[in-house]
Amino acid sequence: MFDEQLWWVSELNQKPEVLGQTHFPRRLKFYDTTLRDGEQTIGVAFDKKEKLQIAKTLDELGVDRIEAGMPVVSKEDKEAVELILRAGLKAEIWGFCRAVKGDIDACIDVGVEHIICDIATSRYKMDAYNFAPEDVLGKVLDSLQYAKNRGLYTAFYAGDATRADLGFLETIYKKAVEVGRAD
Questions:
Q1: Average pLDDT of the segment spanning 62-74
Q2: Distance separating alpha carbons of residues 1 and 14, to the nearest angstrom
């Protein structure tokens, strides 16, 4: 039974096109971001051996996709991603990067085959980086195409999407899927 006191669900989940779905996947797949996003918690920093152990544990639990880190960030993060890739895990190992060619190249250099590209999509973050919406769209499409041309499987992540204009999000995701063939 759904209890609004215990669960929060976006009003977008109440739209007819969502409620009208009659089929659901036989199996849910999990994408874990602990090794990158988890370190954004104050006071949390994993060394490369800890990251490897966490990745192995996630793999044993059946996590399908593990976001191993952002190789361009530091020597330690690069080495951690390399260790995880060499561990022979069943899970897909993903690299995180900004919509920047140098970040994509850093993922390629360590042997990552799956990447998720991030860029600011809210007016607040775009203003902070002096990005115009058309610049953001161009960077995303160029980056995804650059990665695809180098044989990477790509996905797109809209940074700060909860504060972004829904029309802009719809446009950028549709273009990312169409041009960048992103997930």
A1: 96
A2: 16
Separation CA 83–CA 80 (nearest Å) = 5
Q: Are residues 35 and 95 in the same domain?
A: yes
Q: Is residue 49 part of a domain?
A: yes
Domain tally for the chain? 2
- Domain limits for position 142: 121-183
Total-model pTM: 0.84
Of the candidates 112, 133, 148, which is a domain's last residue? 112
- What's the rounded Cα separation, in Å, for the pair 52 and 175? 35
pLDDT in tens, 24-58: 667 778 999 999 999 888 999 999 999 999 999 99
Question: Are 89 and 55 a contacting pair, CB within 8 Å?
Answer: yes
